[in-house]
Amino acid sequence: MQDLFSLKGKVALVTGAAYGIGFAVAEALAKAGAAIAFNCRSREHMNTALAEYAKKGISAKGYLCDVTDEEQVKNMVEDIAKTLGTIDILVNNAGIIKRIPMVEMTAEEFREVVDIDLNAPFLVSKAVIPGMIQKGGGKIINICSMMSELGRETVSAYAAAKGGLKMLTKNIASEYGEYNIQCNGIGPGYIATPQTAPLRERQADGSRHPFDKFIIGKTPAARWGTPEDLMGPAVFLASAASDFVNGHILYVDGGILAYIGKQP
Ligand code: NAP
Ligand code: GCO
Fold first, then answer.
1. Residues enclosing ligand 1, CB less than 6 A?
2. Model pTM greater than 0.85?
3. What is the rounded CA–CA span in Å between residue 139 and residue 153?
4. Which of 26, 41, 74, 104 is 20 to 30 A from 47, alpha carbon to alpha carbon?
């Protein structure tokens, strides 16, 4: 049974895995046996991440690559193939959010979020799939969101992108399933990372951020998730244990989507 979850001999690319959810996912895949490549845009983030991976005994290979740049993505995928081997597992994790009321958001700001959160998973998947087909199969995991299912004020671009990412996941599953490629999504709930730090900031009087309290009330687990909560689901979807799971979004949300919310 343990072999079902083994990633020994596999090559994994986790985009945006300098810290946060991507780092935890890459760590999990490494501990299950995979060779890890990751990318980000900032050299400082990459150097810090390489040191953190090394502290955990992981010799990750880091790339400075903006996932929205098709040429950079192509070069990164080609270099991974030359140095680590053809990619078996792709985690499209890199993402940003802008929290701006829709009518105040510029077209450029909207486009930037969609470019990174939706267009880039298309670009990276497009670069990786031919190698997977040649290799006889592969695993693609797209990091979706509660906003793949729900909306809320100020996150129009992010929700549109993550909703699109859910459907891109289902379409890749549909189009490439016959090549033994499984494409699934992970939909994290509210996870304590730099991306959500503004929603958890202590108030001037030392009290909890109103949004922090709101999320605790909307989550049956009554806590924020941690990046470590995503490690098991990621290994499951990256391994042979999920070979007949395709086009599925696995919500790892502590029960948010099942729950109407605690009475205030
Ligand atoms: P985070 O802490 O902001 O980390 C984002 C990572 O992506 C960083 O390593 C960043 O590094 C990289 N990145 C951003 N834009 C990039 C680009 N254009 N090219 C390459 N790398 C890029 O975010 P997170 O909370 O870990 O979230 C990771 C993913 O999970 C995102 O897709 C997010 O939408 C999703 N998610 C998060 C939550 C949550 O509650 N935190 C919940 C559901 C889904 P550089 O800045 O150095 O490029
Ligand atoms: C927000 C949060 C969320 C989380 C996540 C929830 O502002 O609502 O950033 O969008 O990042 O996507 O699943």
1. 15-16, 18-22, 39-42, 45, 66-68, 93-96, 116, 143, 145, 188, 190-191, 193-196
2. yes
3. 34
4. 74
